[in-house]
Amino acid sequence: MPELPEVETSCRGIAPHLEQQQVTDVIIRQAKLRWPIPTDLKHKLVGQNILHVSRRGKYILIQAESGCLLLHLGMSGNVRILPSDAPILKHDHVDIVLATGKCLRFNDPRRFGCLLWTTTNPHQHKLLRRLGPEPLTDDFNIDYLFQQSRHKKINVKQFIMNSQIVVGIGNIYASEALFSAGILPTRVASSISKARYAKLIMEIKKVLQHSIDIGGTTLRDFVNSDGKPGYFKQQLQVYGRAGQVCHHCDNNLKMLQINKRSTFFCHHCQT
DNA sequence: CGAGCAACCTGCATGC
DNA sequence: TGCATGCAGGTTGCTC
């Protein structure tokens, strides 16, 4: 499921229900995720207030009094706010139960997500400390990206999907942003001009912000934290549209595999 | 060091 | 109807 806009949408959706609320129970039905959920998580969390909910890359940070939960939704995860006695569905792995009678329920069919606990600065956690800048901040700018691209022999798609370079650009938005910027995904990162990177940065910011504004792209199983389904697959320009006509010219869109991931582009509009 | 790829899982569409 | 196959939004961590 989640690309950055979906994670941001989830984060904003759950934050008002969690912040300044006390945790009364933690129910773990399936601890085997990408990494095991700490077995003593319940003892660490119960009784504590949740202070703040934020996002770093695709990680959701739930800051409590004595530590911080790191939540990643993987490929197929979602979080919802529900009454704590709401019926349990398949793959509902974890409930964080609150004194309000509601709970944060984490569901993840493929179990590529994770739920970890850290008692130190979460940004210094092993999984977060090497992450690149947030794409929607001024730290993600032309001087930075151009500098990073020099001497990089990989193609530009893998370059912008590398979370050490910049976080939050997943497989869908990589194709979308490169299409909007008119850059072939197979271009070698080090051979692209500064001017073209300036355009690419602008398009990355635009497509991510646009998706956040409408609430997150949904391909299959995104569910908002309120339980309302996401929407607007129809806004995608190229992703999933191989063989269909390009919206900017009369040619058919193409697909190829890059690093085992499907990649969509227009051979006429992108050079 | 970087590049390539195996691994972690289930669900769904497709083809025989 | 059943079974095998391939593919799916992510990321780490292993080899070479």
Structure commentary:
With 271 residues, the chain is an alpha+beta fold. Helices cover 24% and strands 21% of the residues. It is built from six helices and ten strands. The strands form three sheets. Strands 1-6-7-5 form a four-stranded antiparallel β-sheet. A four-stranded antiparallel β-sheet has the order 2-3-4-8, with helices on one face. A two-stranded antiparallel sheet has the order 9-10. Helix 1 packs across helix 6, helix 3 packs across helix 6 and helix 5 packs across helix 6. The radius of gyration is 20 Å and the shape is elongated. The protein starts with a helix and ends in a 6-residue tail after the last strand. About 4% of the residues have low confidence. It binds a DNA duplex (16 and 16 nucleotides) through loops.
Topology:
Layout: H1 4-18, E1 23-28, H2 41-45, E2 50-56, E3 59-64, E4 68-72, E5 78-83, E6 92-98, E7 102-107, E8 114-118, H3 142-149, H4 156-161, H5 171-181, H6 194-214, E9 254-258, E10 261-265
Antiparallel strand pairs: 1-6, 2-3, 3-4, 4-8, 5-7, 6-7, 9-10
Helix pairs in contact: 1-6, 3-6, 5-6
The structure holds a DNA duplex (16 and 16 nucleotides).
